[in-house]
Structure formats: C-alpha cells, structure tokens
Amino acid sequence: MSKFEIVKPGSGNPKEPATPKNVPNRGGEANPSGIALKEQFSAAILRIDVVNGETNVLVETAKVLDIVRWLHDDATQSYEYLSDVTAVEHRDLSMPIEVVWHLRSIKYRRFLRIKTQLKKGTKLEVPSVWPVYKGADWLERECYDMFGITFAGHYDLRRILMWEQYKEGFPLRKDFPLRGRFSRSEQLRQALDANPEAKYSMEELSVADAFEELPLDMRARIASGEKTGE
Amino acid sequence: MGLTSIPHSASPENASSGPEIISIEPKGGDGWVTTRLDFLVNWGRSNSLWPMPFGTACCAIEFMATAASKFDLARFGMERMSFSPRQADVLICAGRVPFKLAPIIRRIWQQMPQPKWAISMGACASTGGMFDNYAVVQGIDTIIPVDVYVPGCPPRPEGLIYGIMMLQKKIMTERMSNKSIRDEMEPDPSSKLYIPASRIDEISEPFGNSVHQTRSAP
Amino acid sequence: MATKRTIEVELSTSGLTRDGKPQRVPLVTGGDTGVALAEPPSLELDGEHMLINIGPQHPATHGVLRLVLELDGETVVRCIPHVGYLHCGFEKIGEYRQYNQIIPWTDREDYLNSIGNNVAFALGAERLFGIEITERCKVLRVIAMELSRIASHLVWLGTTCIDIGAFTPFLWSFQERENIYNLLEGWVGARLTTSATRVGGMAADIPDKWLEGLRGFVSTFPKTIYEVDRMLTKNAIWVGRTIGLGVMSPDEALNYGLSGPMLRASGVAYDVRKDFPYLDYETYDFDVPVGTNGDVYDRFLVRVEELRQSVRILEQCIKRLPDGPVNVDDPRVILPPKHKATSEMESMIHHFKNVMEGPRPPVGECYVAVESPKGEKGYYFVSDGTSKPARWRIRPPSFVNLSAIPKMVEGHLLSDVIAINASIDIVMGEIDR
Ligand code: SF4
C-alpha cells in the first residue's frame, strides 16, 4: 500500500543524535531554522535567542499562522509535528502573556519554540494553527480553558477541562487563587448544578453542523426544544 | 451443615452475653437451625457484596491489583464486579473526585438500590488528599454518605481488604428493626447539598502543611 | 481499507493432530487464508440517528472518559469525546511548590508510569539548573524508565484484553506487575506512587541484591510475553476484532500529533529515545518496532514488541551499571548527609535553607521530552529565578492521541469503538491533569 510508506526520522540530517551534554543556560548552538525564518519573514521575527539549548523565536502575533504554515510546508524546514501549544503568564503581572508553540521537524531532527506576546488589557487573541496541524485542536481548547486566550480560526473553541458553565474564571491565570474564588460549598453547589446530561443531546452535535443533515422530523423536535436521547 | 462453620464472634453481641445466635437441633444430627433473621440476612449480605468500582485515578490501579491474581478479592465474596450501579451493593470510590465529577458520583449513588454502602478508598476520595486546589472535591463525604474510609495514597491492597472486612463487620451489626438506616438521604432542593454549607466549608478547610503552601513565590 | 491483508490465524479451540500437536485450522475465505474483513456497513441506511452516551463511568473507558456517539444503526457517524472529568489542577499546584516538592505530583499524573514521570521531571529540572547527573544515576534512571514502560504496557494489555473479551491476560499481566511492584518497593518503598528521583539524583540507591531481583524478572518476564503472544497474535477472535480498525496513515498520524506506539504503528519510526535522546539512550542497543497498517492490531504488535525491547535494554543496564555516587556533588540541590546535618552547624543551615527555601534555578525555560509508554511526554518549565517554577506545563501524549478518536472511530461499529479506544492507551490522570 503506497499510503503506508515508513517515515524514517532524520532523513534530512546526517548527524547522529546524541544526548545533549553540559547545555549552557544562554547561548550555544542555534537551530538553523531561526536564521531561515529571519530571512523569510524579516519584520515579523522580533527576537531569536537560545536558552538551555533550545531556540526561541519571538514572532509577531498576527503572523503566527503564516510562519507556522511556512515551517510546516517548506521542504527545507519540514516541521511536520506539533508537540505542544501552551501559554505562560509570569508572576510579574505587568509582563505580557506568552503563547508558546513547540514544533518538531522529524525529518531534520530539530526542535523549535515559537513564541508570541500578548499585552495584558488587550484582547487575548492569537491565530489558530489548527488549519495546519489537526493535533492543535484540543491543545488550543485547553489553552483557552485555562488562560482565556482565544484562538481565531479554531472551529470549535469550547472549554474542555472545566465544565462549560464554570463561572470562576481561568484557573491558570496568576490572579486566580489556588483554591478557587468561591467557597467550597458554593463550588460544590455549582458543580452539582451542572447537569451531566445536558451535553448529551443533538444540540451539542450541531456544534459540528450535524443539524442540516438530520431528518426533518428530528430537526423539528430539536427546534421545539424537546430533549433527545434521554 | 454448612452454617456451623460461621464464627460466632462475627456478631459483636454474642461475645458478651445472651443466647447463642445459631443453634442446631437435634444436637449432632441433620435437623434444623434456629437463628436470628437479622443475623442470617446480614451474614448473607456481608459475604456477597457486589462492588461497584468507581475508579478514577491511581487508586483504581491498586483496586485492580486487589482484584487480580495475587490479592484476589474474590476470597471475600466480591468477585462479581458490578459496573452497573443498579446491580451493586457497595460503591468503592477509588481515586480523586474533581468537581466536574461530583454530579456523576452523586447520580451513581442515587441509582444504587438499598441496601447500599460506600467505601472511600485513598486520601483523595476521603479528604481531597494532596489536591487542595480549585478543582478537587475535598472528600466525597460532602457528596454521598461514606461508611468506611481507607487511608493511604494509594492504600495497599491489604489496606483495602481490611477496609472491606470492616465494612462486613459493620453490616453484621445492622438491625432490621432500625428502619432509618435504609432511608435515602434527600438533598436540600435549593442547594442540592446533603449537609449544611457551613459544615462543608469547615471540613474542607486546609490543614497541616498545606495551609502554608499557598504562596506561589519565591 | 486493508481488505487484502491476511493474517494466518489459529483457532483458539484447536484440536490435536494425529501426532498430538495442536492443529492449525486457518479460517478460509474465498481461497485466501486468513481472516477476511467485513465490508464496512454502508452509511446509506435511512432512519433516525441514535445518540449513545458512553461514560464517564464505564468499565471500558479506562477511567472517566465520556464519549457521545451518534449512531446510524450500529455504525458510528460521529463521536464527540468529553474529557476533563479528572482535572485536578496539577499545573496550578506546580506553581506553588518547589521543584523537589513537585515530584510526588508527577507520580499521580500518569499513574501507570509513575517512576518514568519522576525521571522525566528530574531531567527537565536538571536542564534548568544546568546539572549533569552521574553515570550510575543515568543507568538507574534507564532501569526505572524501562521498568515503568513494561508496567504501563502491562496494564494496557490487561485492560484491553478485558475490553475485547479475554480475561486471562489481565491476570497474567497483573501477576507480572506485582513482580515490578516488589522491585520498586524494595528500591523506593512504594508500589505505585514512587517519587523516586530528586533534582540531581535519586531518592535512594538500589539496595544490595536488588539487581538479583531485576535479573530474575528479566529472565522470567519474556515467558509471559511469549504466552501473550501465543494466545493473542494468531487468535482468530483477537485478529478479527482488531484488524483494520481505526486506521491512521503516517501523514495523518503526524498531523494529528500522535506519538508513541500510536504513531509508530502508523509507520512513523519516531521514538524520542532514538531521535532526541536523553540519558544516553543512543548507546543502548534496541530496535524501534514500526507498524505497516496503522490499525489496532498493529498497535498491539508494536506494544508487545516494545516489551521485548525494554527487556533488552534492561539486560544491558544490568551489565553496565557502574559503581560510584548516585547524587551529583552540587550543594545547590543536594542535601548534606544526615549525620553531618545533625552535628555540624554549616550543614544544618545548608539543609534548612535547601528544604525551606528550596534551590533556585537561573532564569530561563526548557522543554524536556521523554518517550513515555504513551508517547512523547514533555515537561516545560519556565523559571523566573525563584524556587518555584513560574509555569510547569505537562505535554500529555495521551491527550493528543485521544483527540484523534473522532477521526478513528468514524464509520466503524459501536463495538469497535471500544477496541479503538483501548488501543490508544489512555490514562485519564494524564489527559485531564
Ligand atoms: S489517594 Fe493518592 S493514589 Fe489515590 S487517587 Fe489520590 S493521589 Fe492517587
């Protein structure tokens, strides 16, 4: 079957991988993709530095999707694997929130960290990389759930870990207290209030546009507010 | 006569005084047995508990180890895991219960028919354990009534077995004449809580070291 | 669809031949030997779609996963997973604890692989502190990681077999897990929640004669693998229930961010141990099994082969374990010996400072990934120079793997959903954190 050609990592990088030793805190060998990015997107690349052996590229928020798409598609970069999407808020509340993408190139055995900064007080919004990497789907939803950062272009940005009616805010923000904002009894009351069956209905499926494909009578029943499936 | 092998000490009262709980007539022959209905029913119940494993986290792995070959929970009449709450006697909550799971464990408890008991396995289920944060219920006894708490993080299989034996002992002391123990607890319709809110806040208070560990820096 | 693929199967209830050997009775279909795949049922049937809710409390969801399925007859049209029922705020708690204090949390996050997580966390923290661990510690950590890979795959094997309808391998695998528990208990004192590492070393060196125990395990464990292999690999029922399900092509698998056995079963030979090595894995001799079809059956084969490879690595570890100290000689992170702490003033102050204030890494960040049994497990630290991380992020492999389940179950039967879900090897503690 032609579809299943075994992908061998490192085909573009003859160097044998080895455990990194004595990695300096600052500086060191940089990932060549940083330079390539600078050439390709000169103005959108704000800073490139090497921290603990990993190359950080700080980019302009609006350009994230273009940059990531280029890294994914370009044959000399070939970052086909998205490890992680997450955000960082610093304890110093005046510092901007950072959104971080960890990319891997399986072909060249490279690791790259893309970062962008979001000023507090503005709308926390970054482009979604979901159109490039399907794996970003839940990672971005989680980031939204925990930090309240919206990913423009994500098809279904809902809370994922907390329940949808969760009222206390975004737990991983630094202004969120460790034990939550409400008293324990209030938290429990709200949790028990969340109807577990509420998400077990055709309405929810319509999130993914099932509605149009449903039989007419079922659509009528849903439109009338009748609960299905109970 | 199978029943003669029941240890009499299984019932706490007969140790002190009172008539024999089991007597066999005529002595030494295949006659009849007289006993107390309470005793017989409790004996039957306690030795054929059908557990409903509500396993969420690490404790569930130890629960599985308890049920597997080495520790063999079947020796205690519990080999029949009942994954449907409607056919279960004892809810074993093994693992942490976050708030998102609270309505579900409540629902499962309500679906179980009487007589029913609950075992809270592990520090998290009993008190919230090391997760004193925004997400985790500080003890499932704020949601459902619990009969036996098994401490440990996770409890060793021996610990769980000991907890189960304690539950069996507890069942042996139940009296049919006491109707109230079989009453369903109805939550307060407005707050959905069984126990008063102030009490929940009180038992969820941080204690010990965790009081001092609320600073995120330095 | 892999319709042409055939696997020679043995009927599980084989009779004996005349010379007393088990008889092989291949299933014959259309002149071909092997199990024929049923055509996927057509989606053309008219009628109402039905909604089925599986979980959060369900024996086959391996924890508290919830799947809402839209069914057409018995065929899955759409699957919507719900996670978060075990969200316990690990990452938030990490910001309130010192580095060494976080290690007990790493046990409980992917609790099938607890000692492996300890190692991964320590590796990340050491990168941040700029510490190079000792040679003995490296080998001990490799032993820890491979033991925990075996332990985790064993739980996967047992629970998957139960899901698909075989009970015996569950008992076998938990029997072997008890052996691993015994080893771990002898080493760190705990069966499951090990907390075995510290920044810069291990909580304890292995006790005397411990290696004997490990040697015993390494020599007896392959027998269990062999038994599992004999029972399942050519079992007609097993093959019939797993083959051709949940197929992911290499490109899809990469794009969905799958990792670990899931990715390798799809034909991508990406293994963090080989491609971004840590703990000198490049000096060990082991193979990375790769599947060629990307279905549930291949994932099973890959995992069983990984068990064998882990045993190989363990054998090499036993041979090369060097003598020497376990902990680095770095007063920033390592406590003074107990007898000094109780007799010398300086050591006592040092001990007090290290425990109460905690070691402080320089400002910086790092992402350290290891090959956990589930896939690429990464810990991302951001340090702002204080003794507690400003951000501690867990890159959960099974979270990302699970996010592909709607794609994988589409068009399969309801009963196949269970097999596919089992093949992902999810552990909710890690998915929801
Ligand atoms: S008590 Fe410990 S082992 Fe049990 S669920 Fe909680 S953290 Fe896990």
Features:
heterotrimer; A: 230 residues; alpha/beta; Beta Polymerase, domain 2; five-stranded mixed beta sheet; two-stranded parallel sheet; 20% strand; C: 433 residues; alpha+beta; Cytochrome-c3 Hydrogenase, chain B; three-stranded antiparallel beta sheet; 17 helices
Overall 3D shape of chain C: globular
Biggest chain pair contact, residues each? A-C, 77 and 75 residues
Number of helical runs of chain A? 6
Relevant CATH superfamily of the domain at 32-161 in chain A: NADH:ubiquinone oxidoreductase Nqo5 subunit
CATH topology of the domain at 32-161 in chain A: Beta Polymerase, domain 2
Q: Nearest-angstrom radius of gyration of chain C?
A: 24 Å
According to DSSP, the number of beta strands of chain A is: 7
Report how far the terminal alpha carbons of chain A are from each other.
44 Å
Instruction: Write the H/E string of chain C, N to C.
Output: EEEEEHHHHHEEHHHHHHHHEEEHHHH
Based on secondary structure, the structural category of chain A is alpha/beta
Q: CATH homologous superfamily of chain C, by name?
A: Cytochrome-c3 Hydrogenase, chain B
- Shape descriptor of chain A: globular
- Helix share of residues of chain C? 40-55%
Describe this structure in words.
The complex is a heterotrimer of chains A (230), B (218) and C (433). With 230 residues, chain A is α/β, with parallel strands linked by helices. Chain A has a domain at 32-161: Beta Polymerase, domain 2 (2-Layer Sandwich), CATH 3.30.460. Chain A is built from six helices and seven strands. The longest helix of chain A has 12 residues, at 136-147. Chain B is of the alpha/beta class and 218 residues long. Helix content of chain B is 28%, strand content 11%. Chain B has six helices and six strands; from the N terminus they run ββαβαβαβαβαα. In chain B, the strands form two sheets. Chain B has a four-stranded parallel beta sheet with strand order 3-4-5-6. Chain B has a two-stranded antiparallel sheet with strand order 1-2. In chain B, α2 (58-67) links the parallel β3 (51-55) and β4 (90-94). Chain B is globular. Chain C is an alpha+beta fold and 433 residues long. Chain C has helices at residues 90-94, 99-107, 114-129, 135-164, 168-188, 210-232, 236-242, 250-255, 261-265, 272-275, 296-320, 338-341, 345-356, 397-402, 405-409, 414-424, 428-432, and strands spanning 28-29, 32-33, 50-54, 66-72, 75-82, 197-198, 201-202, 364-372, 375-383, 391-395. In chain C, the strands form four sheets. Chain C has a three-stranded antiparallel beta sheet with strand order 3-4-5. Chain C has a three-stranded antiparallel beta sheet with strand order 8-9-10. In chain C, a hairpin with a 2-residue loop joins β8 and β9. In chain C, α4 (135-164) packs antiparallel against α11 (296-320). The longest helix of chain C is centred in the middle third of the chain and has 30 residues, at 135-164. The model of chain C is unreliable at 25-34 (pLDDT under 50). The chains are: A alpha/beta (230), B alpha/beta (218), C alpha+beta (433). Chains in contact: A-B, A-C, B-C. Chain A binds chain B through residues 91, 161-163, 168, 171, 174, 176-180, 183-196, and chain B through 99-100, 102-104, 106-107, 132-135, 137-138, 142-143, 187, 191-193, 197-198, 200-201, 204, 206, 214, 216-217. Bound molecules: iron/sulfur cluster (SF4). Residues 57-59, 95-96, 122-124, 129, 153-154 of chain B line the site of iron/sulfur cluster (SF4).
